[in-house]
Amino acid sequence: MKKTFKTKNIIFLSLFSLVISSFFSCKEENTDKEYTAYLFSYFVGNGEGEEAIHYAISKDGFNYHALNNNQPIISSDSISRTGGVRDPHILRKEDGDGYYMVVTDLLSKNGWTNTAMTLLKSDDLIDWSSTIIDIPEIYPEFSEVMRVWAPQTIYDPQEGKYMVYFSMLEPGSYDKIYYAYLNEDFTGLEDAPKQLFFSPNEKATIDGDIINKDGKFYLFYKTEGEDDKGIKVAISDSITSGYKPEPGNVDQTEKAVEGSGVFKLNDSENYILMYDVYMDGSYQFTRSSDLKNFEVVDEEISMDFHPRHGSVLPITTEELKRLMEAFPSNNLAEITGASNPEIKSNNIVINKEEQTIYLPVREGSNLANFDPGFETLPGVTVTPEGAQDFSNGPVTYTVSRGENSETFEVTAKVANNPVVEGYYADPEIIYSEKEQKYYLYPTSDGFTGWSGTYFKTFSSEDLVNWEDEGIILDLEKDVSWTSRNAWAPAMAEKKIDGEYKYFYYFTAAQQVGVATSDNPAGPFEDSGAPLISELPEGVNGGQNIDPDIFLDPESGRNYLYWGNGFLAVVELNDDMMTIKEGSSKILTPDETFREGVEVFFRNGKYYFLWSEDDTRSPNYRVRYATSDSPLGPLDIPEDNIVIQKDEEQEIFATGHNSVVQVPEKDEWYIVYHRFTRPKGADMGQSAGFHREVAIDSLKFAEDGSIIQVKPTLEGISPLN
């Protein structure tokens, strides 16, 4: 069955002109024959109208903007029998003159059984003709096929033909990947499908994705099975046979995944492997140079939509212009960022509704002569150009595309929060007497499911300007007893036999370890075994995480606190690495206690701070109690909030803190994490592992009670 149709724009927006004269900046570039951008084709869900082809574009392969207001670019009814299509895959023709696309013909509300796929072809990525291929209808030998899923196409250079490959399930078997060559006009298969690959564990194998690198073919696929599920890669010298699976998985999460897609970054030797973390409604991106070893790059990714199983095609400037003209979208910001290195680019806020832009800049920036270096989508000009005076308030900019223009009020302000750029959480801080400066020890964040495996430290003389000291402990290299979940460290500097020693307490695999060094910036050597591995006596739930080390200035004793769902304490021996027998005690203050205890001493009082709620919740916040002893009992004030969200400033999930005192002064600062801003507000629970570290002043009333801290964007001024 063959159909021809023309897609129509759903909404025409005046801000997209048919005349687009420039590329990503205000300067013209002759890049029509080069790949300068990316097209992401995807579907969005299993609900009504969601099983359809959508488009998004990107300049860099990391930050994506939905086209057509995130509405379908083709009516599923016009190209399918079921009324739904999924898993779109677009391929550029080998001669560059046109495009092929294949999709699964399936509407999930009718069940997961289907027998057809749809082949589509186009000259311009906009108008598509289609043919439905029903496998059992055409090939009687497959008359009992129960599903035909996730087709993709690739060019076979040896045969000089295009090949389609997909998974099929027959009764009494499991999903296997098949292939067939396509006829010249891309409307049918030359022959019946042949088996391409099946999982060695004889479990379902679906969502195949093949890419050619250096003459070898890499087949990414999803397997099932209780003990061996996830995304794997098999490699062959032949496109149609001989695939040998590599050991282990290439996905970087313990969660259920499917729909992998691989593409090479323009002007780079790196590849992106992305996949659908479908139970979470999220997408994970990873990067690799060898297509075997991948690192998560979620912290670099942004999307103003929620995709399901899709594919990415590198495109030219001319193609990008054409797509934007055909599928305009009012959520497509003409200004996509700013290149001035003094701007904290992850925290730029572009508000199209209010037509404002907020540029957070680093301490010491010259705002009287400041050029943002705006980055734009194709066809956009921004005036005025060059450096402007932001020292007296906002500057008005005009953003134009062709004959259409709008103005933005642009504010550039010093923003010392976050204190270090990138995703970090659970900050610990000390002042080093040896080095006469401050050291920050956070959790390395930005990893789905808090799956980071290493710790870093940063140093500063003024609490504002921080130097990255690098990785100080890597679980995979430095710790023999585990390699997962590097969380929530604590640090102590102690003089032993006239020499400064450093004791680094850290969470790994829901246990507390300890590592040592002669320097606050490491490297640190692990003790060889966890210090805390069993729940305390009398505790039946919770986790052994979030240590805090406290050296009591009154008694000279050393106390280690920890716990999630409970608060426990033990006394450490003078070696700081062993527990004093019989010293364990439970101090859980009340039902608000979740985790992240911080203990410090001021004016004869011991302060106990902790985090309430879940770190993935916008309401994550800090409470406190006081005591006359490091071992309690705890006195909980009626109003004991230390810091909490500020919705007006869009600051959320302010928690898991530490506290530092300026030496020889009654001057205190709270160091905490928050959701990344502004992205975190829209990330859902994944904001809970995309966090940033901030510092604000901590002040006390005359009676010693803590005055509630208002979280700020500007942070503190540099200390003298």
From TrEMBL:
Alphabetized UniProt keyword annotations: Carbohydrate metabolism, Glycosidase, Hydrolase, Polysaccharide degradation, Signal, Xylan degradation
Span of the signal peptide: 1-27
InterPro entries, A to Z: Glyco_hydro_43 (IPR006710), Glyco_hydro_beta-prop_sf (IPR023296), Glycosyl_Hydrlase_43_Enz (IPR052176)
Membrane spanning residue stretches: none
Keyword Transport appears in the UniProt entry: no
Keyword Phosphoprotein attributed: no
Recorded family membership: Belongs to the glycosyl hydrolase 43 family.
Protein's UniProt name: Family 43 glycosylhydrolase
Lineage: Bacteria, Pseudomonadati, Bacteroidota, Flavobacteriia, Flavobacteriales
